[in-house]
Structures are given as C-alpha cells and as structure tokens.
Write a structure and sequence with these properties.
The chain has about 325 residues and is mainly β. Helix content is about 5%, strand content about 35%.
Length: about 325
C-alpha cells in the first residue's frame, strides 16, 4: 500500500527528471525518407539513385523496414508479408532473417553511434525483439556487437563476431509481445558501430520449431525477427557517482530473485526513502525505508538501489535473477 502513496511523486519524477542521453540515433526507426513500401528495404531500389530510406540505419544483406505509412504492399504495420505485429515504440520497426535452413544467410541492421565509446566506461544497451508469426522457427542467438568499423560478412553470408550484449531469455518465441534484450559491458574504446542480429553460423545456432499462425507460403526452417526501441546509455551519465562509496548499508542476498534484505546500523533510516533504478536510469521502485523489499515482479537484470535521508545518500548495485 505504501507504494501507492508515492505514485504521484513517481509520475512527476519521470516527467521532471531529464533522462540520460541515448547514444542510438533514430532508435525506434520512426524517421525515414522516400520509403519503398513495395520493396521494404533500407534503400529504395525502385527509385533512380537508390536513395537511403531509414535515417541513421543501414543494412548488411537485406533486412526489411516496416512502417504504418505503407498501407499497401507487404511491409505495413501491423500487417505485413511476414504476419501481424504492432510496433513496440511508434509506428515502425526493422526486421530480418536470424536463421534459415535453406542456406547460411543472415540479415543485420547497423548504425554509426552518435559518439565513439570510451575505454573503461560501462555502457548499457536495451532493445526489443518479436518473432514474426509467419515463420516456423525460433532462435535464442540474437545480440548486438559493437566495433570500431563495419563488421565484414563471412563469404557474404553472416557476421562472425562475439556480441557484447546477447539475449539471455532462451528461445524468443513470442509473436505478440516484445522480448527485451539488455546488458551492460565495459568498452575497450573506439567502438563506433552497433550491429544487431545473429552472429552464429547455422551449425552454432540453436533453433526451435514452434509452428506458424500465418505461415508465409515459401517459408520453412526459417526464423525472422522484428527489432524496435534501441537504447544505449553511458552509465557515467546516469548519476551513480557514489556507487558503493562509503556505503552505510548492505543488501543480501545478491543476486536474488524474490526478497532483498537491507541491513544498516543507521538508526535514522526510518525517515529515509528507497529508490531503485534499472540500467537505463528509470525508477522501477520508490518507497519509504523498509528492511525487506519484494522484487519478484521485476524483470531479470542489473539494478541500483539508493537510500536517501537528510544525512546520507548511498547506492549499491544488485542483480535480479
């Protein structure tokens, strides 16, 4: 019940507090030019000079662009050649092949970041994937690779690389909701491109037959995913500068999947507040101080818990299994 008391405060905080800068440009694929509704590609091959379609984003092999502007053709939102899917954010998303048993080819989207990554800094990425319901297979090998240059294709088929962020949720089978893929990593320095897709060969790709609701006639042994709402945050800008420094409390167990205990010798904490943020700097919990917090409803991932009172403000990182 206490959490309801702070609902108005949380809503105000979300509106009033500036969010950390997203280093991904056009992360929800909304900005485009000269869209080719009949071809669906990131370049408009139906026009002379093949103008680029989606601002900031480019393609390796031939991923597709879907937008609600396309009322005709096979690349509309929510109805398209690959089935039926509403966008996670806005009116558009990208899509591409993650596996096909017919041949090795896989499709990727990439862009040059607004600024290169800095060595030693921690960056956190989040993006969403949804399986097309017009295909029969699912994979779990969707990830994002950061590099100093555009990664090459192996024999024009796929990118052989180790992604810094990789799906940890098992096979992505959902065709209605969007599955978040997130993770944090320490940059080597100089990485200025992000590439999203499956970076494994067919032999190293785990696949699962799940059937199809609206199967594309020519499709078999095929995995196709939509991608939307891509966010990359430099953690040094989120405001955790006091992380673990001179902490006046401790938390356990860490990691945990249900209850987080807070232990402190500070007798003034009964007047304190507890604030919890995810890796994007968004508040996921706010309440008055308590010795235990139930977190079973939070998604798995990395979180930061801060105790605030008039004398102390300290932050500790923990992991939700």
């Amino acid at each position: 019940m206490r959490r309801l008391v702070f609902l108005s405060f949380i809503l105000f905080y979300f509106v009033a507090k500036p969010q950390a800068q997203n280093l991904i440009q056009n992360g929800s694929f909304e900005i485009f030019d000269s869209i080719d509704c009949g071809g669906g590609g990131f370049d408009n091959y139906s026009m002379i000079g093949t103008p680029h379609v989606v601002n900031n984003w480019y393609s390796l092999n031939s991923p597709d662009y879907f937008n609600s502007t396309c009322f005709a053709g096979g690349f509309n939102v929510p109805y398209s050649y690959f089935g039926h899917c509403y966008s996670k954010q806005g009116n558009a998303y990208a899509g591409g092949i993650a596996f096909t048993g017919n041949y090795e080819t896989k499709e990727y989207i990439y862009q040059q970041l607004s600024v290169p990554l800095q060595a030693g800094k921690i960056y956190c990425l989040s993006f969403y994937a949804s399986r097309a319901d017009g295909v029969t297979h699912a994979v779990n090998n969707i990830g994002a690779y950061f590099s100093a240059s555009i990664p090459p294709l192996v024999s024009n088929y796929y990118v052989n690389a180790t992604p810094q962020v990789l799906n940890q949720s098992g096979f992505i089978t959902d065709t209605i909701s969007w599955t978040e893929i997130q993770g944090c990593f320490t940059a080597l320095g100089g990485e200025q491109y992000i590439t999203i897709g499956n970076f494994n060969s067919n032999a190293n790709t785990d696949t699962l037959f799940v059937g199809s609701v609206n199967q594309t006639p020519s499709t078999f042994k095929y995995a196709y995913y939509y991608i939307d709402d891509v966010t990359l945050i430099d953690q040094s800008t989120v405001g955790f500068n006091e992380l673990d420094k001179g902490k006046s409390f401790d938390i356990y167990p860490n990691p945990t999947n249900s209850i987080l205990n807070i232990e402190s010798n500070n007798q003034q904490l009964q007047n304190a507040t507890i604030e919890m943020k995810n890796t994007l700097g968004q508040i996921v919990y706010f309440d008055v101080y308590a010795h235990q917090i139930h977190i079973s409803d939070l998604p798995s991932g990395i979180y930061f818990i801060t105790i605030n009172n008039k004398e102390t403000k300290r932050t500790i990182k923990f992991v939700k299994d």
